[in-house]
Amino acid sequence: MRTVVITGGTDGMGAALARHFLTAGDPVVVIGRSRAKFDALVSALSDPSTAERAEFVAADLSLVTDSRRVVAHLTARYEQIDALVLAASFIRSRRHITTEGHEASWALFFLSKYVLVTGLAKQLRASDRPVVVNTSVPGAKADAIDFDDPELTRGFTFGKSNAQQRRANELLGILATRDNPDLSYVTWGPARLVRSSFAGDVGIGMKLAATILAPLMGQQPADAVRPLIDLIDNPAPGRAAYRGPKLVPLVVGPTDEQDATRLDNLAGTDEKGT
């Protein structure tokens, strides 16, 4: 059995992965905001032993204090974590500041992942075949991060924010595999739209895509995550990027190692300063 930790595991693709691994007999920890959705997910599974292997940890991962609390709970409870799936999502098209003073999208889509990946490094090293799957669509430009203003206090746009988060999560893979060369670190995005409940505060264009296009053209979450299941079942050490089942080239910049270290220093300061 493997211990699988899934953020955003009560909806969409995260919930589909939780159902799969619970059905397969693995202990699964779901990190999310809705206990009711978690209970419904577990009760819908026919195996009565599921409830014994399923754990819910309530957290708002846009808050660094909640991310740190999750790490403290998991490190106290588990000596080994075999798979960490980072799938929590709440899309914002406008800049929003959390109660901690962070830009919400940067906090949710990068800082929380940084806290979890670095904070659970010991538990991942204890696994024979550890894997981190980061559902951050690969392919952002190498220079996408404004290191002088990562929370985009000036000139915020959804496009800039999205590109920064995606690139930061690719660089996080450099930090994670530098610390643990046996780790499989995968940045992954679905091959096409996925039918799921849409959590976000967005404009009319995104709302139309979520409410009209996804039901018409999107794939079911259980179908979308099949490539992820294969990657978790058969992890290969090192970094890789995928769109659906297709391996895609990693973006390589001339200063990746230095940028990863710079990001580590930046994120570590933000995380500790909260």
UniProtKB/TrEMBL annotation:
Name recorded for this polypeptide: SDR family NAD(P)-dependent oxidoreductase
Q: Which Pfam families match?
A: adh_short
Q: Which organism is it from?
A: Phytohabitans kaempferiae
- List the Gene3D superfamilies: NAD(P)-binding Rossmann-like Domain (3.40.50.720)
Q: Which domain of life is it from?
A: Bacteria
Q: What is the lineage of its organism?
A: Bacteria, Bacillati, Actinomycetota, Actinomycetes, Micromonosporales
* Keywords for this protein: Oxidoreductase
